[in-house]
Design goal:
single chain; Endonuclease I-creI; about 180 residues; 8 helices; four-stranded antiparallel beta sheet
C-alpha cells in the first residue's frame, strides 16, 4: 500500500490531477496540494532524441487555412509546430526555444505554448531536425503529412487551385481527422 500511495502522489503532482475514482480511494492525497518537483532552470536540452520523444507525446503539427482578400485564391496556408506544457514548465519551454533556435512562447491560462509558424524556420530548422531525429508513433504520420504540405508550399503549389485542394485534403486527414483501417 505504501508503494501505491507513493505512485498516486506522483500522479497527483502531474498536470491532470486525479481521476474521481482515485480521489475516492485516496481522499487524503486528493485534498493535499502536491507540489511538482522544480525544474533545474540551468538544465539545457542536450539530447535531440529526448526532444523527438517529447514531441511524440506533447507536440502538434498543424495546417491553418485562412480566408484572405489579398490572394488570387482568397486563401492563405500557414504551417505550424506547437508544444504545450503547464505554466510551471516555463523554463523548459524557454530552453526548448534556445535549443531549436526559433519559436515564440505564449501563455494561455495555466499553460505555455511554444509555437513555430515562420516558414523559413520550419524549412531550415524544424524539418531538418525531425528528418535527422524522427518522432515515433501515430504523430509521425501527422509529421509526414505536414512535411508534404511544406514541400508543396516551398514549390509554390499552394498558390494554384490544384495545390490548394491537395493541401485541404491532407489537412482533413491529419490529427483528429486521421482514420485508421
Amino acid at each position: 500500500m505504501e508503494g501505491l500511495t507513493k505512485i498516486v502522489k506522483i500522479k497527483a503532482s502531474l498536470n491532470l490531477d486525479l481521476s474521481p475514482q482515485l480521489k475516492e480511494y485516496f481522499p487524503e492525497i486528493a485534498l493535499a496540494h502536491i507540489p511538482r518537483p522544480p525544474l533545474d532552470s540551468n538544465q539545457k536540452i542536450s539530447d535531440p532524441f529526448w526532444l523527438a520523444g517529447f514531441t511524440s507525446a506533447e507536440g502538434c503539427f498543424f495546417i491553418n487555412l485562412h480566408k484572405v482578400t489579398d490572394r488570387k485564391l482568397n486563401e492563405r496556408v500557414k504551417l505550424g509546430f506547437k508544444l504545450i506544457q503547464h505554466s510551471s514548465d516555463e523554463q523548459l519551454m524557454k530552453n526548448l526555444i534556445e535549443f531549436l533556435g526559433c519559436g515564440n512562447l505564449f501563455r494561455k491560462g495555466d499553460a505555455f505554448d511554444l509555437t513555430i509558424t515562420k516558414f523559413s524556420n520550419i524549412i531550415d530548422k524544424v524539418i531538418p531536425f525531425f528528418e535527422k531525429f524522427p518522432i515515433q508513433g501515430v504523430k509521425f504520420l501527422d509529421y509526414i503529412d505536414w512535411f508534404k504540405v511544406a514541400k508543396l508550399m516551398e514549390n509554390k503549389s499552394h498558390l494554384i487551385l490544384e495545390g490548394l485542394n491537395i493541401i485541404r485534403d491532407i489537412k482533413i486527414g491529419m490529427n483528429k481527422g486521421r482514420k485508421f483501417s
